[in-house]
Amino acid sequence: MTVRIRALCALALISCRSPPSARIGEARADERAPASPGVALVELFTSEGCSSCPPAEAVLQELADAGRTDGPRVFTLEFHVDYWDALGWPDRFASPQFAARQREYARSFRESGVYTPEMIVGGDEHFVGSDRVRARQSVARSIARPEALRVALNVGRRDADTLLVHYELLGALPREAFIAVAVFEPSVVVRVGAGENAGMTLHHSHVVRAFARSALRESSGAEIVRVPAALRSVDAEVVAFIQRGPGEVGAMAVLGAAQAHVPRG
To answer: In a 10 Å sphere around its CB, with 0-12 CB exposed, 13-18 middle and 19+ buried, how is residue 11 labelled?
Structure first.
């Protein structure tokens, strides 16, 4: 099956891969008016077992760096999928939850399957993640759209392994939407010992370590997110975003987002 998928990718002239009581901390998102009219949520679905993925991860890092330098509200997340794990190198950041999220996107886009590296911008545009030009254009388009909902965050620890993420929204709530919270580690370096990237040192950025989502019913509330014990003593951050529910093509558009630091446990 892998050979057939790669052959189809070659015929299409694209690069794609597919294998077989709370203590509230002081961290608070900036509630001032955004410097730009919109936000760009950039999600990269990747794997340490995929030799085509490191260039896409480099593009993701470039987008994150540009966002910090130029001021646009760009939020980057790196989701590691698990469907490469049986091919020689189990990715310790991979999760079936993240692969399920990618498949949900595929259904929204009316795609028959998933691949790595796939980049999704704003929840409604997808392409091969190593396409630097397309990535920059997609981010620019997303930022150019007015932000439908303003998001403010307050992040604290309920206990050592659990975060309590309070949110407040400004704007009209859609009929069907979700509040999603991604907890990520800003920078990780891994020496890969087997698989397609054997011998390589990979530099990951904004690696998602925990993810939670629930139906949005009120303009304020809180999400409980369990995080790995390894995140107790390292720098970590939270991105919370509002997304339309899956359904019609392009229905998973991102309506607003914000970011905040996680207080150490």
So the answer is: exposed
Q: What is the C-alpha separation between 20 and 10, in angstroms, rounded?
A: 17
| Bridge partners (DSSP) listed for residue 40 | 74
What confidence tens digit (pLDDT) does each residue in 82-96 have? 999 999 999 999 999
Least Cα distance to 198 among 114, 87, 69, 119 occurs for: 87
Q: Helix crossing, 132-144 with 53-70: angle to 10°? A: 40
Domain count for the chain, please give it: 1
Q: What is the pLDDT of residues 93-105, one digit of tens each?
A: 999 999 999 999 9
Q: Which domain holds residue 243?
A: 2-20+23-261
Provide the token pair at 149. Answer: 């909902």
Beta bridge partners of 243: 178, 254
SS (H, E, C) 109-158: CCCCCCCECEEEECCCEEEECCCHHHHHHHHHHHHHCCCCCEEEEEEEEE
Q: Taken in order 214, 220, 221, 225, is the CA torsion positive or negative?
A: positive
The whole-angstrom separation of Cα 43 and Cα 102 is 10
CA atoms of 93 and 178, how far apart (whole Å): 24
- From the list 146, 138, 149, the residue with the least C-alpha distance to 173 is 149
